[in-house]
Amino acid sequence: MDIRINITNIQIDTKRLILRPWNENDLDDFYEYASVNGCGEMAGWRHHDSVEISNTILKSFIAEKNVFAVVLKGNDKVIGSIGLHCSWAEDDPKYCNLRLKEIGYVLSKAYWGQGLMAEAVMSVIEFCFTEYKLDAITIKHFSNNNQSKRVIEKCGFKFVGQCVGYSSQLQQNVTHMKYILYR
User: Fold this and answer.
1) Cβ–Cβ < 8 Å for 22, 69
2) Is the pTM higher than 0.90?
3) Is 152 helix (H, G, I), strand (E, B) or coil?
4) Is residue 175 in some structural domain?
């Protein structure tokens, strides 16, 4: 069952990152990484062609109150996002009675390969299990996204299967690899 999580007054500090709610001053940083070809496409959306697209999505992050800005300590630059969404497992009888959320994330290409997203994901896992007493957290990645696969496995998720679906944002069929982590 989906649990509503509101991050409005939440800040999570890790060794190198601050996870906090988005604000309107984050637009330039958001557009900077979201406009890079290949960044969003790995997460299921097309890179942003204009700052107006970034602004519209930023406003939705602020309104929905379920997506953290990933901020690099030391320079206060937003370098990614990590959200808590309705899980793929909601429709599966095997998991539908569990208190669940799904983690989705994206990181600026300039920061790939440094272990930053695994650090962010592990802190969000701890937050969800401690503060919201979730039974499990799910996650998924495109079958060709080996960077996300490494993050997911490093964080302890267990592979449960794959599915093929149509991505309206990418306008193509995609294969997702699905994972779960129990409390």
Assistant:
1) yes
2) yes
3) helix
4) no
Q: Record the tokens describing residue 50, joined without a space.
A: 């204009």
Name the amino acid, one letter, at 70: V
Structural domain total, the chain = 1
Q: Is residue 61 part of a domain?
A: yes
CATH number at residue 23: 3.40.630.30
Evaluate whether residue 73 is within a structural domain: yes
Nearest C-alpha neighbor of 125 from the set 8, 1, 9, 14 = 14
Residues 119, 125 contacting (CB under 8 angstroms): no
The 10 Å CB-count burial string (b at 16+, else e) for 9-40 is eeebebeebbbbbbeeebbebbbbbbbeeebb
Per-residue pLDDT tens over the stretch 132-154: 999 999 999 988 889 999 999 99
Give the domain range for residue 82.
12-134
Residue 2 DSSP symbol = B
What single letter denotes the amino acid at residue 167? S
